[in-house]
C-alpha cells in the first residue's frame, strides 16, 4: 500500500503528460515558456485571484511574498509553530523575526484568539515592528480567515497565506490561496496539486504586488532584462513542470471530490472501529484539500502502538510534525522552550497521518482501520 499513490493518477493522464512534455521539447523554451502563463491564468481562475505568479517552489513562493512586502530585519511576522519548517525559515532567512502563536487544538491551525495578545505583546515590547501574519492551512484545511483578516486590519498587518498544502481547499465560499492579501502554494509532488519536481505559485489581487513579484522572481529585473531595480532571486517555475501541471490540473476538481469521499469514509470507519483516535474535524463552511489525513491518539505511547500495528500490517504512516518550530535547533536563538506552545507540543506528541490520496480504495481503508483497531 502507498502513503500517496502518484502512479494511479499518472495512469489516467499519462498520454496527456507525454503530449505536453513533447510540446516543450518541440518549442524549446525551457525558461518562461508559454505553459507558465497558461498555468498562471488557469490557476488564478480556479482559486479566484486576479494574479498568479509561478515560481520555483512553495518555499520560494513564501520568500517572494515577504520580499514583495519588503519584510526584513526588525519586522515581526506572526505564524504557527505547528507547520513544516519552511514557514518559519523564510521569515528568519530574510532577517525578520518569526513570532509564534499557538494553534487551535481542534483544527491545528493558528488560534485567532491568541493572535491579538501576541501582537499586543510585541507592540508593548517595542523592539520589533509587527508587519504580517502568515497563517498555515495545515493538512489542507484553511485557517480561520474571517477572524485573522479582521485582526490584521485592526493592526495594519498584511496576511500571507501559507497554502502550500491547501490547493483545492475552501473557506466560506472562497478557495484556499485567495484568503489573504497574498496566497502561496507548492507543487511538490506529494501536495494536492503536485508536479514531478519542485514548483510553487503566489496569488494576489493587487496589481502593484503582482509587478513586484514578477520582478523579484527574476533577480529584481526592471523593464529591461539587464536592468535590475531591486534585489530578487532566481525563482522561476520550470516550463517542464508547468506543462506537467497543466495535465494534472484537469484532474484536480474531480480529485477534490474523491478526497472528500475518502475522508468521509475514514471518519465513519474510525468512529465505529473502537480505536481510541480522534479523526480530523472540519469547521462548517470549510473544505479541506486533505493533503494529509491526520488523526490524534490519546498519548505519545498509544500513538507508537497504532503506528506499530500499521507497520505490522504493511501500512505506511507518517508524523507531521513531531517537533514544533520553536523547539527546532535552528530557532534556539529565539530563546523559546518546551511549554511555550502547549497545543502545538501536544499535537506533535499525539498526531500521525494515514495513507491519503484520491485513489485510495475502500478495501484498503477497511484494512487500515482494522489494523488501527487491532483486528
Ligand atoms: C511543503 C510546504 C512548504 C514548502 O513547499 P516546497 O515546495 O517544498 O518548498 C511550505 N509550507 C508548508 C506548510 C508546506 O507544507
Question: Could you characterize the architecture of this molecule?
Answer:
- With 375 residues, this protein is an alpha/beta fold.
- Helix 5 runs parallel beside helix 6 (145-155).
- The chain is globular and about 65 Å long.
- The protein is built from twelve helices and 13 strands.
- It folds into two domains: 6-249, Aspartate Aminotransferase, domain 2, CATH 3.40.640.10; 252-372, Aspartate Aminotransferase, domain 1.
- Helix 4 links the parallel strand 2 (75-79) and strand 3.
- The two termini are 18 Å apart.
- A seven-stranded mixed β-sheet has the order 1-9-8-5-4-2-3, sandwiched between helices.
- Bound molecules: pyridoxal-5'-phosphate.
- Pyridoxal-5'-phosphate binds at residues 57-59, 83-84, 86-87, 136, 162, 164-165, 186, 188, 198, 200.
Summarize the helices and strands and which ones pair or pack:
Layout (H helix, E strand, L loop, with lengths): L5 H22 L6 H14 L3 E5 L2 H11 L6 E5 L5 H9 L3 E4 L11 H14 L3 E6 L10 H11 L2 E5 L7 E2 L2 E2 L6 E5 L13 E5 L2 H10 L22 H11 L2 H20 L5 E2 L7 E2 L5 E5 L2 H13 L29 H9 E4 L7 H11 L3
Parallel strand pairs: 2-3, 2-4, 4-5, 5-8
Antiparallel strand pairs: 1-9, 6-7, 6-11, 8-9, 10-12, 12-13
Helix pairs in contact: 1-8, 2-8, 3-4, 3-7, 5-6, 9-12
The structure holds pyridoxal-5'-phosphate.
Notable features of this structure?
seven-stranded mixed beta sheet; 13 strands; 375 residues; three-stranded antiparallel beta sheet; binds pyridoxal-5'-phosphate; Aspartate Aminotransferase, domain 1; alpha/beta; single chain; 12 helices; Aspartate Aminotransferase, domain 2; 41% helix
Amino acid at each position: 500500500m502507498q502513503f500517496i499513490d502518484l502512479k494511479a493518477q499518472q495512469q489516467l493522464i499519462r498520454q496527456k503528460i507525454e503530449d505536453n512534455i513533447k510540446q516543450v521539447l518541440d518549442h524549446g523554451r525551457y525558461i518562461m515558456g508559454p505553459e507558465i502563463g497558461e498555468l498562471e491564468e488557469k490557476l488564478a481562475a480556479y482559486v479566484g485571484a486576479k494574479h498568479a505568479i509561478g515560481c520555483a517552489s512553495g518555499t520560494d513562493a513564501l520568500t517572494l511574498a515577504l520580499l514583495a512586502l519588503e519584510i526584513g530585519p526588525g519586522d515581526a511576522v506572526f505564524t504557527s509553530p505547528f507547520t513544516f519548517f519552511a514557514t518559519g525559515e523564510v521569515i528568519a532567512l530574510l532577517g525578520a523575526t518569526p513570532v509564534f502563536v499557538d494553534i487551535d487544538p481542534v483544527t491545528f491551525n493558528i488560534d485567532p484568539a491568541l493572535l491579538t495578545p501576541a501582537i499586543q505583546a510585541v507592540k508593548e515590547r517595542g523592539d520589533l515592528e509587527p508587519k504580517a501574519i502568515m497563517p498555515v492551512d495545515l493538512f489542507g484545511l484553511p485557517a480561520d480567515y474571517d477572524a485573522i483578516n479582521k485582526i490584521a486590519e485592526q493592526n495594519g498587518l498584511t496576511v500571507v497565506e501559507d497554502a502550500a498544502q491547501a490547493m483545492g481547499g475552501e473557506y466560506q465560499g472562497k478557495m484556499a490561496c485567495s484568503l489573504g492579501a497574498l496566497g502561496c502554494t507548492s507543487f511538490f509532488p506529494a501536495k494536492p496539486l503536485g508536479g514531478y519536481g519542485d514548483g510553487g505559485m503566489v496569488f494576489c489581487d493587487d496589481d502593484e504586488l503582482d509587478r513586484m513579484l514578477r520582478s523579484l522572481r527574476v533577480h529584481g529585473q526592471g523593464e529591461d532584462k539587464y536592468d535590475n531595480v531591486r534585489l530578487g532571486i532566481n525563482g522561476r517555475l520550470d516550463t517542464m513542470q508547468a506543462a506537467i501541471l497543466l495535465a494534472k490540473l484537469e484532474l484536480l476538481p474531480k480529485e477534490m471530490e474523491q478526497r472528500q469521499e475518502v475522508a468521509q469514509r475514514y471518519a465513519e470507519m474510525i468512529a465505529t472501529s473502537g480505536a481510541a483516535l480522534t479523526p480530523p474535524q472540519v469547521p462548517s463552511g470549510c473544505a479541506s484539500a486533505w493533503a494529509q489525513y491526520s488523526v490524534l491518539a490519546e498519548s505519545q505511547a498509544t500513538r507508537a502502538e497504532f503506528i506499530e500495528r500499521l507497520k505490522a500490517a504493511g501500512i505506511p504512516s507518517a508524523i507531521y510534525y513531531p517537533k514544533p518550530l520553536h523547539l527546532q535547533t535552528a530557532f534556539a536563538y529565539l530563546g523559546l522552550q518546551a511549554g511555550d506552545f502547549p497545543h502545538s507540543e501536544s499535537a506533535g506528541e499525539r498526531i500521525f497521518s494515514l495513507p491519503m490520496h484520491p485513489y485510495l480504495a475502500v478495501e484498503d481503508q477497511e484494512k487500515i482501520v482494522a489494523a488501527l483497531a487491532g483486528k
